[in-house]
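Batch 3, record 17
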Amino acid sequence: MSAFLDAMGRVPPLLAQHLVLAFSALLLGIVISLPLAIVSARRPGVARFALGFASLIQTIPTLALLALFYPLLLSLSALVGGGIPALGFLPSLLALTLYGLLPILRNAVTGLTGIDPAVIEAADGVGMTAWQKLRLVEAPLVAPVVMAGIRTAAVWTIGAATLSTTVGQPSLGDMIFAGLQTQNWALVLAGCFSAAALALAVDALLGLVERGIARRRRGAVWGALVVLAIGAGVALAPMWPSGETRVVIGAKGFSEQYILARVIGHRLEAAGYRVAYREGLGSGIALGALSGGDIDVYVDYTGTIWADTMKRTDVPPRAAIYAGVRDWAASTRGVTLLGGLGFENAYAFAMRGDDAARRGVKTIADLVPIAPKLRLATDIEFLDRPEWAAVKRAYGLEFGSAHPYQPTFMYRALESGAADVIPAFSSDGRIAADKLAVLGDPKGAIPGYDAILLLSPEHAKDARFQAVLKPLIGRISVETMREANYLVDRDADKKSPEEAARWLEKKVGL
Amino acid sequence: MPASRVSGPSVAFDRVSKRYPGAVAVDDISVEIAGGSFVALVGASGSGKSTLLKMVNRLIEPSAGGIRIGDADVAAGDAHLLRRRIGYVFQNIGLFPHMNVGENIAIGLRLTGGKDRAGRVADLLDLVDLPRDFAGRMPDALSGGQRQRVGVARALALEPGLMLMDEPFGALDPVTRDQLGIAIRALHDRLGLTTIMVTHDMAEALILADRVLVMAGGRIVADATPQALLAGEGGAEADALVAVPREQARRLREIGGGG
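Prediction for the assembled complex:
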């Protein structure tokens, strides 16, 4: 229970961001869909197109819709010569706005086309202009139906706003995603609870407005709206301008990233910077967020950029990859590679220690003759990654079966005997804890994955900033990182990334 | 409400046609209606009578020809300003369900910024024989006949000289229908209106109107006073329509005489 209460302490600033995003999207949705509904009600052709489009949007998973806006805005920004942010608030706002169009549009069109034709004939007959007819007759008659649509849209938008975390917009989803990755269920619960409570409260208040309109009680309508406005004002308190600029530290969505972000943050805070965290960034999005200035610093891995972003399929030695990434990042993105932290988080094939000993397997080469009898369990993306292609090419490795899992369950599968081999992460704490044997890569098929500190273009020549972070370079060994990760990932006596970061700092003497 | 006025305006149709793709609703009609007269447009469904009526207040725009009210061409100026000078009552009434009776009656005053709405609403309720306290009721609390009386009061609110009625009693029971017909005719006489009423009921037309226009296939096939029609001077189509109430009246007399 105390873990849950601790987690609730993170809610207020995220709730404010969440509310601003959802409310802006809802407002924009209303502004777009009401005029569109009026035109649609008069022209069936427009109605078919508008409703068809809004329904189509609904069939796209929200997560995909959010992700789609990133390349869209990026190319749009390139088209107009830059300046359009492709991450954070804008793509989230646009995706959620589109998502909320359908219920408002559909209810408004249904309401308008469902008005008794005799009432419209009478409105024309007494000499109303088109505007008077809309204001005096149509709007009051469809208001309750439209309000019901707005209510639905509000609940959807508040729920879907949790997903904006993935494109770098802070929301209550930060807690849910971080909690899922670190298996901190109190954090997940607190995030879900807050989002659900917000949705229910807004729904209830809008419900009062809806009933007030239907029963023509102006007092009830205004009362509910005033309560809503006061609630929003209080919730937004953490966002009231403080006048200070802040350093934003990015983190992708797994424990090691959360821990390292805190380590970086603690150093910057100690040096007098005001720090904010942008956590749970999608792997492909973090570098874009950095070069766009949405975040100031984060940790990435040379192999990830080499293979995923630079699309290189060759596998030169670690040092060559490091140099290649450093030069590429500086020349094409203006991003500074400050240095390596001292450890790798590479894919490393692993087996149960006793099993490997019994079968006499020490390297990937030893696996080749027995692999057809073995089962491979991987994370979600490994089977599609260039590393797997490179390993197959180099060794001619073929497993009897290969199934993707969530990373946590990949380890469980190995532990329980449901799988015999996994591509583990070399800095993962579970390697030591589960007594796994890490297999060698004599042919050097898997690229180096040095953890590197990347700085945004703004800090390329920022000597003070760089001086604060320099002591981290080469400081963290893979054993230390494994231990710190395990503090967070283990099932019993779990630590928060914050606690693990403090432990790591003490361990390496920072 | 003034007790009477000199007379409502005349209405002149000049070679008016209304064509839809593949159909002609009104076919080249020219007819003049004298100011202050009560004219019934009678015909079967699809004869074009409602179309002809709605072209007067431009709820339907003619394909050809012109209509004048008094000396003014209806096509000149804005349609909504024209409609505010014309009373319009129709079968489905179309009371605004979100407004009470008083607000419904006063809607024209609201559109034109008229003053003393409450006083006018009371006068208009008196005029259509409804209690004044009906002003605060919602339309769905009224009977069909009461609703149409409110519809008539709403149409009279801006003191029009011309009343257009499209099957005004079509949805009412026979007793209510008869009472409301008598009330309408009385209002017509008292206010000196020009009234054009569309109906498919020849008996109603014969009893209420000064002049009956019989329509078929988009044309006027008979144009006569009720007396002339009853005397068989209206031609074949009119005779067929007049024969129905005449035959009913004869049979009623027989039953009465035999019993």
